[in-house]
Amino acid sequence: MTTTAPGGPVAAELPFFVYGTLLPGEPNHDLFLRGRTAGERPAVLPRALLYDGPGYPYAIEGHGRVHGTLLVAAPGVYGELLGLLDHLEEFLGPGHPRNLYERVAREVELPGEAGEAGVAGEADADHGAGESVRAWVYLAAAAVTRSLRTGGVLIPGGRWTTGRTPGGS
Predict the structure, then answer these.
(1) In 77-128, which ranges are continuous DSSP H helix?
(2) From 26, 40, 89, 109, the catalytic residue
(3) Which segments within 74-115 are labelled E, that is strand?
(4) Is 89 designated active site?
(5) Running DSSP on this structure, what letter comes out for residue 115?
(6) Rg (CA), the chain
(7) Tens digit of pLDDT per residue, the chain (169 long)?
């Protein structure tokens, strides 16, 4: 996995994969992303599980899929957006003991056209042939992951929305 320290050099201006309060329609989308993105499209993080948190979710490595959005930073604001997201996600640097999340580079899948039809095409979106893109993803830090694996509430289907019943979908 590739990580970089906040404010440190970034090897590439990767897009961001978001799956919680930064999703379109969720509370932090407008606060942190309005005017700072050049593109947003549905995406899926393979080999990951989604757990319920205190008002926001956590993704961890696992045998599942997490649904979210791939964001491309608007021209000229990449550094600002990276700093804002690192601060929001409480990422202090790779492996820092006080991290809430780790920022890692992962492959995310962009569903093909057949999968973007909505509920009727959902099976295609889950397993369809689309392109793969490397992106920054905020995964739960090690201590949080250990806690989730032993007593966390798994979100069925890997889709998170504000206001849903805890443990429900």
Answers:
(1) 78-88, 122-127
(2) 89
(3) 101-110
(4) yes
(5) G
(6) 15
(7) 455 555 554 557 999 999 999 999 999 999 999 999 999 999 999 999 999 999 999 999 999 999 999 999 999 999 999 999 999 999 999 999 999 999 999 999 999 754 443 333 333 344 455 799 999 999 999 999 999 999 999 999 999 986 544 444 4
